Amino acid sequence: MDALYIILTSSLFAISCGLLGCFLILRKMAMVGDAISHAVLPGIVIAFLITGTRDSFEMILGAALLGILCTFFIEFFHKKAKLQTDAAIGVTFTSLFALGVILISVFAGQVDLDQECVLYGEIAYVPIDLWISDSGQNMGPKALYVSALTLIVNILFIRVGFKQLYLTTFDPAFAATTGISVALWNYLLMGSVSMTTVAAFDSVGAILVVALLVAPPATAYLLTDNFKKMLLITCLIAIIISILGYHLAVMLDGSIAGAVVAVAGLLFGLAYLFSPSNGILLKRIKQKQEAEKLAMTKG
Amino acid sequence: METFKEFFSFSDPSIVSVVVGAVLLTASSAVVGTFTFLKKKALVGDAVAHSVLPGICLAFILSGTKNPIWMILGAFLTGWISLVIIDNITTKSKIKEDTAIALILSVFFGIGILMLTNIQHSGNAAQTGLDSFLFGKAAALVGQDLIVFGIVAVILIVTVGLFFKELKLIAFDSNYAKALGLPVKWIDLLLTSLTVLAVVTGIQAVGVVLMAAMLITPAAAARFWTNDVFKMTLIAAIMGGISGLSGAYVSYVAPAMPTGPWIVMIISAIAIVSFFIAPKRGIFARGIQQRRLQRLIMDENLLKELYHLGEKDKDPYKGRTVDEIIEERFFPKKALKTALRRLRRQGFLTKTNGYWSYTEAGKVKGQRVVKLHRLWELYLSKYMKIAPDHVHEDAETVEHIITPELEAQLEKMLEYPEFDPHEEKIPY
Fold it and tell me: How big is the CA angle at A112 (ends A111 and A114), to the nearest 5 degrees?
């Protein structure tokens, strides 16, 4: 039962991250996603200090604001100080993350977080942290509800705003002429990324969220050229890596989140080499065949 | 205060070695970071920083010790592999560089975490302290480790010094460097190796996660103070060194604190202050410059319109009301009034009973702007073969930035023409 809870929670988070990640990588904003997932840390710590719990809705919202703030800072340094984008991203997220880690150390007694958990989460503890209803009934792990709620919010967001997100991703200039605010949808997307990052933080930690944001969509991107199919394949990959990752972690007696990411990396590697449409090995074989054909006809 | 004096008097020899170590580690990564920054590859450093973790774990698993030489070798190996893979993915598939970086960064780190937790659960007593690679512990460097990493840091700085010219060239224009016959590939390789080595040493100070900051932030801050690469490298090194020194101090005062994040906070604070207050490139300086330019343009446009009005009535010194000026050309009323008052203070205009008129100096200045505008229009249509009805917009901008030298050249080249393409007289 515990294994099922863990795999289910991890899958739900991976799907949420993957769906948003599809938009991120096509917008060439994967590193902004990386930055946000680090930058929400101080928000989480501050919200922790104020609300005293780690899973209230207010906390997720409050911390998510910091992610949006991070996006804003990156823009600000880039536009106002003319700092090149890569440096703007690097300076912003490292300083916010460092602030978060310092806050954790300063309030070590009051904050139920430690530095390691910030990095790779503690999804193994999901089944222990149960939601007990007022009447004393066991409703199952809290994290499961958080992950389900996150996914529902994300699916609603993508469903409602699909046209706008799609257009601002593929043709921002055209989107602007049809009256869609590119900046607004950018911030909305970044807001969702922040919210999802914060919600998933406990379970998978900062850096592994990045893997969930990027690896499944990148793999799917190699397998199809159709955006809707890409979204579907991403969901499928999210579930597969959660199942395989869990078993790998049990086998090696290591971090579950780490193992999930390792499997995600493996799947990407396979797609990179063997994808029917984009795999580099198949491309090479096809090139060879073409060359032989040409040689034959010439001969 | 007591501890402050104790620390900075450097009376304790162990403090001296910690300080020297921390400053060397941070300064050397700042020096190398300058070049990755200039190549706009700052985030690649981030990828390398995360990718060395599996290498460090692998070295530990294979050697069973925390011997720094093994650690460096392991880290170097996986750091290098990560760069090769990123390069491969971006050139051979449709996946973009940012995605490749984020992917490799997180996947390598995930594998590293998996290995690290596996080692931790294995109960091997020698592993304690291996996790200090995550957030750095400059002050924990003692004895042999300090010597090894100190030597690597010195090698880094010396190598950058030796190949300074070549590194500078490929950072700005690798095509030009190639044309000069420089072995661009080898220098690229050198820079990559230096980056990986810098990451390996810097990690001792700030840890894997924040290593990117040691490469990017000092360079970004230094960029705001100078346009000279040598000075920039020097400033970056000094800023990095200061943050390393402060980190060592924090470690000394509060051993429970993670040193890495403090070092990063200090260098970030230096950088953000630089972004704002640096002369010329800083946000404040830019704002002031912009306002000055806007004012200049407003003043010149205003004087120009007064000249146009004077041309119509054949009386340049005739007084005008505010409304009359606005009718000739629209200006926001408030801005117009401020500009009028400013020009009167500077002695270009006078005001009598609500009528504004040129002074001698004002007419000279207004006439010059009109002349430049018309000369430029003529130049565009004569030499650039642009149709006369398309030249106005461009002249409207250029008239404000033509220097007296350029003005003389234009006059000479166009042989002091009498009329512009719209058959309007060019005033001299």
Answer: 95
Residue B394 CB-density burial (10 A; 0-12 exposed, 13-18 middle, 19+ buried): middle
CB B95 within 8 A of CB A221: yes
Convert A196-209 to b/e letters by CB count within 10 Å (16 or more is b): bbbbbbbbbbbbbb
CB pairs under 8 A between A and B: 216
Contact with chain B for residue A257, Cβ under 8 A: yes
Is A214's CB within 8 Å of B102's CB? yes
Q: Which candidate from B95, B209, B264 shows the least CB-CB separation from A119?
A: B209
Selecting from A80, A87, A211 the residue whose C-beta is nearest the C-beta of B37 gives A87
pLDDT at B128: 67
A80 with B283: Cβ contact below 8 A = yes
Per-residue pLDDT for A115 more than 80? Answer: no
Nearest-Cα residue of chain B relative to residue A117: B113
Please give the mean pLDDT across all residues of chain B: 87
- Whether chain B has a CB inside 8 Å of the CB on A97: the answer is yes
DSSP designation for B182? -
B258 and A214 in contact by Cβ < 8 A? no
Question: Is the minimum CB–CB distance between A107 and chain B shorter than 8 Å?
Answer: no
Do B262 and A98 count as a contact with CB atoms less than 8 A apart?
yes
- Cβ(B214)–Cβ(B26) under 8 Å? yes
Separation CA A186–CA A115 (nearest Å): 31
Q: In this predicted structure, what is the pLDDT of residue A16?
A: 95
**pTM of the entire structure?**
0.86
What average pLDDT does range B228-253 have in this prediction? Answer: 91
- Of residues A167, A197, A234, the one with CA closest to residue A19: A234
- Cα–Cα distance between B199 and B53 in angstroms, integer? 11
| Residue spans of alpha helices (H) in A109-181 | 115-120, 142-160, 162-170, 172-177
Per-residue pLDDT averaged across A76-101, rounded?
A: 91
**pLDDT tens per residue across span B93-132:** 899 999 999 999 999 999 998 898 888 887 776 666 777 7
Contact A210 B106 (CB under 8 A): yes
Determine the Cα–Cα distance for residues B151 and B149; give it in Å rounded to an integer: 5
Q: Which residues of B are less than 8 Å from A28 in CB distance?
A: 96, 98-99
pLDDT higher than threshold 70 for residue A297: yes
Give the pLDDT band (50/70/90) at residue A67.
confident
More confident residue, B331 or B145: B331
Residues B340-357: tens digit of each pLDDT: 999 999 989 998 888 898
B289 contacts A83 by C-beta, under 8 angstroms:
no
Q: Do the chains contact at B111 and A210, CB–CB below 8 Å? A: no
State the Cα–Cα distance between residues A165 and B182, nearest whole angstrom.
Answer: 46
Phi-psi region of B40 (alpha: psi -120 to 50; beta: other; left: phi over 0): left
